């Protein structure tokens, strides 16, 4: 191994240890074009084997290559990035490759997408939502906050007062126990809701 590459062996070990079991780090020596260090090995490569740097499109003028995609021997998806290592004179002496196994994350994304996806042509059942004022209140609050760049949890006292008045103007308090429900979702007492309502209706 080129002596100047030895300190990078510890870097390889540290990265692989931090992200185990999802990261493999491979150090290539350009003097011999061989693999000189592998940490977190899941590619079944071996120290001393040919680097095959053409696989990552290595050229002398590059510094960072990637990120790019690869496929592991077992079919798992790999996201990789490579860094060209240079000595004090600027000469390229090695390439450090970090391979991240992202297969589990892809699987998790597919599961999440399946859970949250609703068919495009799926309408809300009219019989279920026809009289559901809870749903109408929820949608109104969501639209009101989004339009102002807010969230329910971040509403100030003045924001809540303005929202209560806006809900009242749109008839949201017509449902039975609506005041109690609105007070709960806005995190304040029912008496405060009635106070805001009285202030909003005052001449």
Automatic annotation (TrEMBL):
Domain YheO-like, which positions? Answer: 5-108
Q: Which residues form the Transcriptional regulator DauR-like HTH domain?
A: 137-197
Q: Which UniProt keywords apply?
A: Plasmid
Task: Mention any Pfam family matching this sequence.
Answer: PAS_6
Cross-referenced InterPro entries, in alphabetical order?
A: DauR-like (IPR039446), DauR-like_HTH (IPR039445), YheO (IPR013559)
Which positions make up the signal peptide?
none
Superkingdom of the source? Bacteria
User: Which PANTHER family is this protein grouped with?
Assistant: TRANSCRIPTIONAL REGULATOR DAUR
What is this protein called in UniProt? PAS domain-containing protein
> What organism does the UniProt record list as the source?
Ensifer adhaerens
């Amino acid at each position: 191994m080129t002596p100047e590459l030895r300190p990078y062996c510890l870097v390889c070990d540290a990265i692989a240890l931090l992200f185990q079991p999802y990261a493999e780090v491979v150090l290539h020596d350009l003097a011999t074009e061989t693999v000189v260090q592998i940490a977190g090995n899941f590619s079944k490569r071996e120290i001393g084997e040919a680097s095959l740097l053409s696989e990552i499109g290595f050229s002398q003028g590059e510094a960072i290559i990637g990120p790019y995609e690869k496929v592991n021997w077992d079919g798992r998806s790999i996201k990789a990035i490579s860094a060209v290592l240079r000595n004090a004179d600027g000469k390229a002496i090695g390439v450090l490759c970090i391979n991240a196994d992202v297969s589990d994350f892809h699987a998790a994304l597919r599961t999440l997408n399946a859970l949250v996806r609703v068919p495009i042509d799926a309408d809300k059942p009219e019989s279920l939502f026809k009289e559901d004022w809870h749903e109408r209140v929820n949608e109104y609050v969501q639209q009101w906050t989004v339009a102002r760049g807010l969230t329910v949890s971040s509403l100030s006292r003045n924001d809540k007062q303005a929202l209560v008045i806006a809900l009242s103007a749109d008839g949201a308090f017509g449902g039975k126990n609506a005041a109690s429900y609105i007070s709960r979702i806005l995190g304040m007492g029912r008496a405060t809701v009635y106070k805001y309502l009285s202030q909003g209706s005052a001449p």
